[in-house]
Amino acid sequence: MPTHPAYDATTLSYRVLGEGPSVICVPGGPMRAAGYLGDLGGLSAHRRLVLPDLRGTGGSAVPRDPASCRCDRLVDDVEALREHLGLKRVDLLAHSAGANLAALYAARHPERVGRLALITPSVLAVGIEVTGEDRRETARRRKDEPWFAAAYAALEGITAGRATDAHWQALAPLRHGRWDAAARALDAADAEQKNAEAAAAADGAFDPDATRAALARFTSPVLVLAGEVDLNSPPAAMAAYAGLFPRAELVVQPGAGHYPWLDDPARFVAATSAFLR
Asked: Which of 94, 118, 247, 274 has the most CB atoms around it within 10 Å of its CB?
């Protein structure tokens, strides 16, 4: 895997898939190695995907200072990658918790972002509330699934503040639009691909009011892609997220959960490639 130095000399790695103009694809987790993104359902047939392993994950080195894994400080790693690639401006695609990092990057370096695609984004960086009832209402759309009763009971325990490891395991089918072999494999790999110690530092230093004010001045095109049945990022919250930008479009992918490129690759690639074109 190619590597480049960060501002503090930490060695950071990334993968490159496909040809054409580069798009940096920021993984979620938080602090999950980028391997779970695969080629984003075939998006590499349309763009050159640059998939970084954030510091302390995958092939990237563990930094000397654990606090450097804090989300606002990771902005400097994205900037170092842009400079390493020799790009004056870069398109960004970010999934889940990676959207917090992408939002902070866009707020700090708006002139360096061409297009911004936020895929089932976390809302922590911008302070949008997603209530327990929002998640339960989204989950109830799956009431005819054979696993629904156990998963919904787990969700009720989690939203009531009684979360256990067993609850999170039982909830797994509700994270996906299709609870098939591919979804099970992705879910099983989560713990192996995530740096829990780094993740503990990843979500600090958010200032939602300041970030929202900066994004209101961000004039590049933005795509917010939501999954119709995504508990983490329900469509109503995603509509509110899109409303923070002057030039954003909201796409709700039918039947998709938190990993829309896995649930319907063709539909996902059609929407994202059209936006990034």
From this structure: 118
Q: Higher pLDDT residue, 197 or 25? A: 25
Q: Note the pLDDT tens digit of each residue in 209-219.
A: 999 999 999 99
Q: What is the mean pLDDT of the chain?
A: 94
Cβ neighbours around 277 below 10 Å, total = 10
Residue 114 to residue 21: CA distance in whole angstroms: 11
Domains of the chain: 3-131+193-276 (3.40.50.1820)
Is the confidence at residue 202, as pLDDT, over 60? Answer: no
Q: At what angle do helices 98-108 and 208-215 cross, to 10 degrees?
A: 60
What is the 3-state secondary structure of 67-105? HHHCHHHHHHHHHHHHHHHCCCCEEEEEECCHHHHHHHH
Phi, psi of 126, rounded to the nearest 5 degrees: -115, 0
Q: Which residues of 147-167 are buried (b: 16+ CB within 10 A; e: fewer)?
A: ebeebbebbebbbeeeeeeeb
Instruction: Name the one residue in this structure whose structure tokens are 């297009």.
Output: 115
Overall pTM surpassing 0.85 (yes/no): yes
Closest among 216, 225, 212 to 256, alpha carbons compared: 225
DSSP 32: B
Question: Does residue 12 contact residue 3 with C-beta atoms inside 8 Å?
Answer: yes
